[in-house]
Amino acid sequence: MKGFKFAGICAGIKKNGGKDLGLIYCEKPAAAAALFTRNKVMAAPVLLGKEKIKKGFCQAVLVNSGNANCFTGKKGIDDAITCSKLLGDCLDIDEDLVLVSSTGVIGANLPMDKFEAGIPEIVKHLSSEGMDDFADAILTTDTHRKIIKKTGEIRNKIFSIMGIAKGSGMIRPNMATMLAFICTDVDILPQDLKMCLSAANEKSFNRITIDGDTSTNDTLLALANGSSGVKINDTDSNIVFQNALDEVCFQLAKMVVKDGEGATKFVQIIVKGAETKEDAFKASEAIAHSNLVKTAIYGEDPNWGRITAAAGRSGAQVVPEKMDLFFDHQPLVLKGNWMGPEAEKKTAQIMKKNEIIITLDLNLGKETDRFLFCDFSENYVKINAEYRS
Amino acid sequence: MKGFKFAGICAGIKKNGGKDLGLIYCEKPAAAAALFTRNKVMAAPVLLGKEKIKKGFCQAVLVNSGNANCFTGKKGIDDAITCSKLLGDCLDIDEDLVLVSSTGVIGANLPMDKFEAGIPEIVKHLSSEGMDDFADAILTTDTHRKIIKKTGEIRNKIFSIMGIAKGSGMIRPNMATMLAFICTDVDILPQDLKMCLSAANEKSFNRITIDGDTSTNDTLLALANGSSGVKINDTDSNIVFQNALDEVCFQLAKMVVKDGEGATKFVQIIVKGAETKEDAFKASEAIAHSNLVKTAIYGEDPNWGRITAAAGRSGAQVVPEKMDLFFDHQPLVLKGNWMGPEAEKKTAQIMKKNEIIITLDLNLGKETDRFLFCDFSENYVKINAEYRS
To answer: Could you list the residue range(s) of the whole structural domain that residue B65 is in?
Structure first.
């Protein structure tokens, strides 16, 4: 994409010697919008970023893995500012146009010597083809990089959107982080970009069981540099752009879930027929977060009792005798009645698949919501019991 | 305890051939109070019990394990009524004075032939020494029976309280159940017993991560037969009885947590210095329910970042720079600052213990709350992935 450059290097921040410092650089300041964690315990780069993003423009984003710079007090803030300044100097841009982002272990100060050496070095590696290196550098317990590209057409001109993310924890990331960076070449005002990003987020990252809004470092950042010449300035162009952005965010969110710690299966739970939107949200969220549902899916067990009971305790209005439950298109419960051993056998076959869609119809109204989640294996426990050791 | 008899037999309801039918019988109707699950999906015996308990008296309690009689529609209710009638006939008491309770797999009908044969049989086994058999018969994935006895003195007379419970799931029981039965020989009005039971429950079963109020079958039942002649009829006697009941419920709750599925450690999280009672509750609940905290404890890792971050996302008012965090009496974070490697080393030693008290002082006010929970091991996943197979 014209006007964007990327880099990713090993700066010695991670103990395992992998790539751990990433950089996105825009040749000219880009319109910028960001969404951050809602956790009251916020990492230093998030506190700083919330302020800086207010002016709506950004030219460079520095991301490190291996250290979250969270719960590091004033020193943490100072370190984040120092990194911004260092990078601003190296790129010869205003430090106000630099955002920093961190993911990794909480409570340890950034190893500043690594940044002092790494920042001048990473600038040398900037390249329009460097997105893979960048995507690798931001990973923690992810097993592979996550990049998605999409193009669209508005008024006979092509625009592009690229998304790069890291996930990690299945349920709540390792106190660390879901980070996602969107680069696009459309020409859009910062406030419009923010609205599009919020809408896309609501249908993607806010509907996965990473609890996107609660870890300390979560960040979703979008940069639009206008290099395609495609203006997003009316309803028609807005719809096309929004759809493309929705798709990029949804696919990234899906990649994050599929690579959840220890995950072996990817599941969509759709709750329909709810009386209110809130009920649909509550019921789908409760099911997606239930350890008992997750472990049953890992065991390839269509344990409908756990699913309906999770809906029952969710706070949503439910009537057991009205519930229908489907695994893919196979009904297992209709109007509260179990469909018998034959249906259970067919459902058990579906449970062997890697991707499953579970649909719970409450039959009480017209509202729907959806969550993406993964199963829960022994490996999740292993990864998270041993994370700091 | 005078006037109470117990029994527990193998009736063939459980696949593994263990004891699965239990009975408590009071020689005369006892004052009775009960608390049931708040899940909107309620098991048949809970629906029935909620009605029956309204009159405040009960003479016999029949409990089966192996089948929860939940999500079984009208047939489930009919079966529960049939069991009550059968037992009433065998004991020659009014069926209105019989309560039934079930725990086990959801969605399957009760094997009524086993009950038709088992009920006349179990009546023959009633004995004042039968509490161990009863306690065994109500277990599901518990690894041992849970009984606690306590005596107290009021106006120079001795009274007794006995509690028998079953737990199971660590976080949310297997769609099945926390069941607890309290037998006492005090003389108390049903409405007073209900108040005492609610108060005791609030400090015990409602503060463990079994999510006592959300599974489909949860039941806490108290029976008071007055056989000690100790009247609970004024403030002084009420306080003594309440304290004894609190202690019995707390110890039972503790036993349930310690025997949580796959649990290797028992933890108390105390949140103090909260601005409001609700904040103290929210923060302690969020920590006790966090999979990341639970897995870290399993890994003997004093991962304070996960604990403080759980408080941060709980919705409670918190200020990171004011937080103190202790493991037993060892401070690890003071005023938001990590106390360094020496403190971490000492804390790591404490983490090797089987029982740990974690104290988070928010330093914002005077309110306190407490949760009991256990760690989260690979074994939890194994038990719950394979539960129905």
So the answer is: 4-258
What residue type is B187 in one-letter code?
D
Domain harbouring A160, CATH code: 3.60.70.12
Q: Kindly report the backbone phi and psi dihedral angles of residue B48, in degrees, each rounded to the nearest multiple of 5, phi listed first.
A: -70, -45
Per-position pLDDT tens, chain B of length 389:
999 999 999 999 998 889 999 999 999 999 999 998 777 788 899 999 999 999 999 999 999 999 989 888 899 999 999 999 999 999 999 999 999 999 888 788 999 999 999 999 999 999 999 999 999 999 988 889 999 999 999 999 999 999 999 986 544 434 346 899 999 999 999 999 999 999 999 888 888 875 444 556 788 999 999 999 999 999 999 999 999 999 999 999 899 888 877 788 999 999 999 999 999 999 999 999 888 888 889 999 998 888 998 898 888 999 988 999 999 999 999 998 889 889 999 999 999 999 999 999 999 999 999 999 888 888 878 777 765 54
Domain-ending residue, one of B258, B287, B322: B258
CATH number at residue A270: 3.10.20.340
Together in a domain, B360 and B313: yes
Does the beta-carbon distance from A305 to B107 stay under 8 Å? Answer: yes
Interface membership of A264 toward B (CB under 8 Å): no
Chain A residues within an 8 Å CB radius of B385: 295-296, 298-299, 301, 377
SS3 A386: coil
Whether B12 and B111 have beta carbons less than 8 Å apart is answered as: yes
Do residue A95 and residue A234 come from a single domain? yes
Structure tokens at B196: 């005492």
Tally of structural domains, chain B: 2
Residue with tokens 């290797």, as numbered in its chain: B264
Nearest C-alpha in A relative to B299:
A385
Question: Same structural domain for residues B233 and B274?
Answer: no
The distance from CA A167 to its chain's CA centroid, rounded to whole angstroms, is 6
Report the C-alpha gap between A359 and A284 in whole angstroms: 10
Q: What digits encode the pLDDT tens for the residues A189-214? A: 999 999 999 999 988 888 887 544 45
Q: Which amino acid is at B177?
A: T
Same domain, yes or no, for B244 and B300?
no
Tell me: do A197 and A291 sit in the same domain: no
Interface of A with B in 19-58 (CB under 8 A): 38-42
- Looking at beta carbons, which residues of chain A come within 8 Å of B376? 381
Closest CA to A210 of A242, A246, A168, A273: A168
Which residues 278-337 of chain B have a CB within 8 Å of chain A?
290-292, 295-296, 298-299, 301, 303-306, 308-309, 311-313, 317-321, 336-337
Pair A275, A343 in one domain? yes
* Helix intervals (H) in chain B: 44-52, 73-91, 112-124, 131-137, 190-203, 235-258, 277-289, 291-298, 304-313, 341-350, 378-385
Task: Give the helix, strand, coil percentages of chain B, each rounded to 5.
Answer: 40, 30, 35
CB–CB contacts below 8 A, A to B = 176
Which one of A258, A291, A319 terminates a domain?
A258
**Same domain for B56 and B198?**
yes
Q: How far is CA A360 from CA A34, A216, A287, A367, in A?
A: 33, 32, 10, 12
Gap between the terminal Cα atoms of chain A = 40
Active site residue A103: no
User: Are A288 and A213 within one domain?
Assistant: no
Answering whether pTM is above 0.95, one says no
